[in-house]
Design the sequence.
């Protein structure tokens, strides 16, 4: 039934196109803020829709089919809740243009969807490099992956199999090594910001494993067994 595509684009170099480009840049920079304030995402999407009313219509006939390459749907929280509810609590990775409109257009034309539950979740432990010397455990105190895995692998494992929550167990020596691993020439500013937040704010301190487990809401016996096994293996 699909015989072509109708597109709308702003004239290159026009005031509307320049403003659209600026808003797109601003929206990209503020995408993490938009997660905290969904209203901000709605404002940007409303501004885009107003500007796009000034677009010029072009129709293209397709003889064999149409390919829609319009991004994902991570900034459409309703679609995330419907197709990938395990990822709702995560910070969106993308731009406000990833609102699922391309997918919905394909569905309206009779297309079917698949693999909609596939979402890329990232959780990097490093930099600083010293953090991978810790023990990553789930809510039950069980170590569930190699801490040196790529952040997307860690994130996927956390969300798919461990409720999206994990705790990195480190000692005072690792903490000091990590702190020395932050600075000019060692980390980018955004990496340093996340690392400092984790080292000083997103942290629980204790003198014993049992006390630490209580503060983190983890079964003490499980965490103690995990730490003892880990230390025995790495010796």
Sequence:
């Amino acid at each position: 039934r699909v015989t072509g595509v109708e597109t709308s684009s702003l004239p290159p170099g026009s005031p509307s196109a320049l403003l659209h480009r600026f808003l797109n840049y601003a929206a990209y920079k503020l995408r993490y803020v938009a997660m905290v304030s969904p209203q901000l995402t709605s404002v940007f999407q409303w501004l885009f829709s107003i500007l796009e009313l000034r677009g010029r219509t072009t129709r293209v006939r397709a003889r064999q089919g149409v390919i829609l390459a319009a991004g994902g749907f991570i900034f459409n929280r309703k679609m995330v809740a419907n197709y990938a509810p395990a990822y709702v609590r995560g910070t969106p990775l993308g731009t406000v243009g990833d609102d699922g409109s391309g997918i919905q257009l394909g569905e309206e034309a009779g297309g079917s969807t698949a693999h909609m539950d596939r979402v890329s979740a990232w959780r990097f432990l490093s930099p600083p490099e010293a953090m991978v010397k810790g023990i990553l455990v789930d809510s039950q105190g069980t170590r569930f992956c190699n801490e040196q895995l790529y952040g997307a692998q860690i994130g996927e494992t956390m969300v798919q199999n461990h409720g999206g929550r994990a705790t990195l167990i480190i000692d005072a020596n690792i903490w000091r090594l990590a702190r020395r691993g932050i600075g000019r020439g060692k980390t980018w500013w955004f990496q340093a910001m996340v690392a400092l937040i984790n080292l000083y704010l997103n942290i629980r301190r204790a003198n014993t494993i049992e006390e630490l487990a209580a503060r983190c809401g983890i079964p003490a016996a499980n965490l103690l067994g995990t730490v003892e096994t880990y230390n025995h293996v790495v010796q």
Notes: The chain has a mean pLDDT of 87. Residues 15-29 form the longest helix (15 residues). The CA atoms of residues 4 and 62 lie 4 Å apart. The radius of gyration is 23 Å.
